Amino acid sequence: MIVRWLVVGILLWVAVAAAFRYVGEEAVSWMFMTLPAAMLLLTHLFLRIFRVAQTDRGEAASIMAVPGLLVGVYAINSFNYVFDNPSLTLGPQFATLMFACYAAVIIAGLVSARVIVGFLLWIAVAVAFRFYGHLVFTGEDGISWTFMILPLALLVITYLILKLLRVAPSDRAEAASVLAVPGLLVGIYEINSFTNVFPDMHAQLLPQFSALMFACFAAVIISGIVTSRLENI
Predict the structure, then answer these.
(1) Of 7, 75, 88, 202, whose Cβ has the fewest other Cβ atoms within 10 Å?
(2) Exposed, middle or buried: residue 103 (CB in 10 Å: 0-12, 13-18, 19+)?
(3) What Cα–Cα distance (Å) separates residue 24 from each residue in 76, 77, 85, 108?
């Protein structure tokens, strides 16, 4: 099994490096936003396709991550040679992206459906900010009324997700916290690579974006706590 997952890992990470080398600058921006989520989903699919037992998925995913770490060592130390693209001056950001991808692969072997839903939720929020961030923030340091609406919207969305997953009221606080954790991990990545993930948003908006994300994380957790106390909803 170890050899199989090492081979799968080598092919996967070489493909990632090749994609980063040959895509254009605009596509690189998209990769910063979507690649960790794609790696999580791909790893999960690989584990299911190969019918890996639930108890063995953590080990298999960790083995898949090892070749990526080795590829990353070489890619970072020889960044300008490996990525012979004059438009790419993203060495530190590439390292951040790889850290996020390694974590995504390993997490895919450990997580429950709730964590995967959480990752998809927060990636969807990031994609929405990519296209509609200007509706939330105005100018370099202003905010709009949508700044107040997003946490409330996530409070309702969290409740709907918990209902769709048929989470018992007594378990909703814990489930909502599980949904929030991927957002915290995604948030670390977004903050460290803010201008790459959100190229259309001014760098000075980073503090306001961080504050909004804190409010959103709180809204998700509060949704689970409140609805866990209301047995009839």
Answers:
(1) 7
(2) middle
(3) 19, 22, 9, 28
**Greatest CA span in the chain, whole angstroms?**
61
Cα separation, 167 vs 227, whole angstroms: 11
Domain edges within the chain: 1-111, 113-233
Residues 208-228 pLDDT 10s: 888 888 888 999 999 988 888
- The pLDDT of residue 140 is above 60: no
Residue 86 has pLDDT above 50, yes or no: no
Q: What is the pLDDT of residues 52-82, one digit of tens each?
A: 887 788 888 888 888 888 888 877 777 777 7
Using DSSP, state whether 89 is helix, strand or coil.
coil
User: Which residue is it, tokens 């915290």?
Assistant: 184
Q: CA-to-CA distance for 70 and 201, rounded, in angstroms?
A: 34
Whole-number Å distance between alpha carbons of 38 and 107:
13
**Amino acid in the structure at residue 57:** R
Residue 212 near residue 201 (C-beta atoms within 8 A): no
- In 3D space, the residue among 210, 151, 202 whose CA is nearest the CA of residue 184 turns out to be 210
- pLDDT per position as a tens digit, 17-32: 887 777 655 566 677 7
Q: What is the residue whose two structure tokens read 């409070």?
A: 155
pTM beyond 0.70: no
